[in-house]
Each structure stands twice: as C-alpha cells, then as structure tokens.
Design goal:
About 40% of the residues are buried. The chain is globular. Helices cover about 30% and strands about 30% of the residues. The protein has a single domain, classed as P-loop containing nucleotide triphosphate hydrolases (Rossmann fold, 3-Layer(aba) Sandwich). The strands form two sheets. A nine-stranded mixed beta sheet has the order 5-4-6-7-3-8-9-10-11, sandwiched between helices. A two-stranded antiparallel sheet has the order 1-2. By secondary structure, the protein is α/β, with parallel strands linked by helices. Helix 5 runs parallel beside helix 7. It binds adenosine-5'-triphosphate and magnesium ion. The site of adenosine-5'-triphosphate has 11 residues, from helix 2 and strand 10.
C-alpha cells in the first residue's frame, strides 16, 4: 500500500481549498493562461518546502534560468532564493526544447532530470511547462511521455507539480491528456470582473482531486513581490471567461 502524504504548500488561502496540501507521491497539474501566475505559484511551493528543509528541483522548459532568477531575486517572498540555489537546496534543470525534439530525446531529458533528482534526494519537482516538452510529439507519444514522467514521480516518491499551457484564444495546445493523468488539477484562467473599469482577474479553481474533496468554487488569486501568490477570496458574482470563443 502506498502512503500518500499531504504536503503543506504554505500559500495563503491555498492549503484550505485543497484539503490541507498536495499529495506526495503525487502529481498536481496547474493548467493556466499566460501570465496567470503558474510559475510563481509552483516555485513558491518549492521554495516554501525548501524553507522546511526539503530539496526541490525546477525543470525549466520555457525560460532560461537567468531569466527566472532575475525576475524573482528581488521578490521579498523569495529572499533566500539565491542562497538555496547555491546550497543546492533548490536546483535548476534548464532544458528548452527546440524544433525537432523527438520522443527519445524527451525521454533522455526526463531521465537526466530524475537521475539528478534521485542523487540529490529531491522531494519536490516542477516541470514548467509540460506543454513545451511534448508539443512536437504525436498525440500517442504525448500520452506515453506523461505516463513515463508519472511513473518516475511515483517510484521516486516525489511531489510533482506539472504546469500546462492554456492559450488565450483556443482551448489547448496538446490533446488534453494532462487532466486525466494527475491526482490534483488546478486551473488558473482569466475572468472579467466588472467593478468600475472592467478588468481581468485571475480565477483559480481546484477542479479535481483523487486524494480529497474539492469544492470547485472560483477563487481570486493575486501576485505581489511581498507575498507571492495569495488566494484572497471567492468570486461570488456572475462573470464570463474571455478568449474562449476560439
Ligand atoms: N515585479 C512584479 N510585481 C508585481 N507583480 C508581478 C511582478 N512580476 C510579475 N508579476 C505578476 O506575475 C505575473 C506573471 O506570473 P508568472 O510568471 O508566474 O505567470 P505564468 O502563468 O507562469 O506566465 P507564463 O505563461 O508567461 O509562463 C504577471 O502577469 C504579473 O501579474
Ligand atoms: Mg510561467
């Protein structure tokens, strides 16, 4: 029998809506619109776990390491980021796929990442984004790759946070295998809020959990350098989602 731990994320307002934490071993997908805060949320969870003494690895598949570090190094909420990177409490694995990346290359990239993770006793891993890793593959190959990653996560008893891209003007890039290949599914998309001048807010919805209850309500997520991502309440009023007309 597998023992599944609920790992506290330390994100304000978030642990409550996922019944205490994210599963380990387990796979959480964060699927969201561009700029919604996917990377910040995932990295902050990794960072908060590092504060608790756990090692984490960020597999960067869309952005260069320097770009991510430059963005977050002055965020007070990440004030020990550089120290953790130096001490290898947090590790970066940068692999930005280029056109022509085939299934075998993707598998060897995944093997490399998990070998380093295992050697270093990594407890938590982020793939940002899985879409970037699989977008050059055929539909059946995508499913194979997602299963391959999932096996690695379960066999290494790791908490995996997988980020997937939800484009603004269409539903998905790859066939939606991700939704069915995870234990917890979080969606972060934009909704119009009409209070004064209309503006887009980030709506975070805990859509599914195989390890607990989810209420599937719409929550508002905000980002600031001081506190990172916070869930500040629910969206109570009628709203509609832009960009979905296709
Ligand atoms: N210096 C800053 N101060 C306040 N908010 C910031 C700052 N830098 C970024 N943000 C906020 O963070 C958001 C981007 O967050 P993040 O990079 O986590 O999103 P993402 O969903 O990963 O985006 P992408 O689709 O580009 O990967 C921006 O849209 C902005 O709202
Ligand atoms: Mg990102």
């Amino acid at each position: 029998m597998i023992v599944i731990e609920k790992v506290h994320t330390g994100i304000k307002g978030f642990d409550d809506i996922i019944e205490g934490g994210l599963p380990r071993p387990g796979i959480t997908y964060i699927i969201g619109h561009p700029g919604a805060g996917k990377t910040t949320l995932a990295l902050q969870i990794l960072y908060n776990r590092a504060l608790q003494g756990e090692k984490g690895m960020y597999v960067s598949l869309t952005e260069k390491k320097e770009s991510v570090i430059t963005r977050y190094k002055d965020f007070p909420v990440f004030n020990r980021l550089e120290e953790f990177l130096q001490k290898k409490q947090l590790m970066f694995f940068e692999a930005i796929p280029t056109y022509g990346l085939g299934k075998d290359m993707v598998i060897s990239l995944i093997d490399d990442a998990f070998n380093i993770a295992q050697e270093n006793d990594v407890k938590n891993i982020i793939f940002d984004t899985v879409t970037s890793l699989t977008m050059y593959l055929r539909r059946d190959e995508v499913r194979t790759i997602l299963s391959y990653i999932n096996d690695k996560i379960y066999s290494s008893k790791i908490m995996g946070i997988m980020i997937a891209e939800l484009p603004l003007y269409s539903e998905i890039i790859n066939p939606p295998n991700e939704e069915f290949m995870c234990d917890v599914l979080i969606v972060m998309d934009y909704v119009w809020i009409y209070a004064g001048a209309p503006k887009l807010d980030v709506r975070l919805i805990p859509v599914k959990s195989r390890v607990g209850r989810v209420d599937r309500r719409s929550y508002i997520a905000v980002i600031s350098p001081e506190t990172g991502v916070e869930i500040i309440g629910t969206i109570e009023t009628e709203h509609f989602t832009p960009f979905r007309q296709g």
